[in-house]
Amino acid sequence: MGNPNAFYEVLGIPNNSSSDEIRKAYKALVKKWHPDKHPPSSKPEAEARFKSITQAYEALHVRDFNSSGAGSECGVGESICRRRTPLSPSMTTVPNAAVGSYSGKLPLMEKKLECTLEELFHGCKKTIFFKRDVVVDGVVLTREDAQTIVVKPGWKKGTKITFEGRGNERPGCRPADIVFFISEKDHPHFKRVGDDLVLKVHVPLVNSLTGWTFSFRLIGGEKTTISFRDEIIYPGYEKVIKGQGMPLVGQKGVRGDLRINFHVRFPHRLSDEQRSQIAKILNESS
């Protein structure tokens, strides 16, 4: 396994660090040195460091496992010991018979990638941490891994991003693929319908009849103002602003629409005098 002190040095931690401290250091370093986060000029260095960090983490986990005595004689018969594959302390052992009987590719792994509506509008880069089984010196361990995903503007809920061979491993099997699928977080103001955005606005009855001006921020962050002077805002009235929805994937500069749905707030009660005044106004305008 090499010199354990060198592995601690790679992770930048003391050689008496606990398992939690090892895991914390590994998580911080793989995020910093993940090759996808570096430009071409520094990518070779990042790849080398990422590899050494991963190897050090795996080696220390195997060392901790062996030092716990789990790899020694189990005391219940040699045949039973041979049928068990040692794993990390937090894992359940896997019979070799079950592992060896599957010679094809392991089942697909699926993980959820949560994105805000703003992230799906602008696009973003997200580093996801996940756990997977890896084979190290014939031992199956659970390792925390990282994957950087470039989210493109306009991606929708359910969009899938596949990384081949980056899932679980088992001896004698091809590594599983891992799929991240987009999950869209609820937005406090906008609702997405296809490539369109829907904004629900409440307007008082008096303003719906006499005119109204209101301001709000578009999904891109720009502030806009809409005024109604000659229009009557009736219940169910919808105003469409072209090209202010979500970007269309693969169509540069093309966006869906923004649909503003107005909900008129009616008063709970009216006095007799108010009723008479409203009736008079309506009769005069008819």
Automatic annotation (TrEMBL):
GO terms for biological process: protein folding. PROSITE patterns: DNAJ_2. The keyword Chaperone applies. Keywords: Chaperone. GO terms for cellular component: cytosol; endoplasmic reticulum. GO terms for molecular function: protein-folding chaperone binding; unfolded protein binding. Pfam families: DnaJ (PF00226), DnaJ_C (PF01556). SMART domains: DnaJ. The keyword Chaperone applies. This is J domain-containing protein. It comes from the Eukaryota.
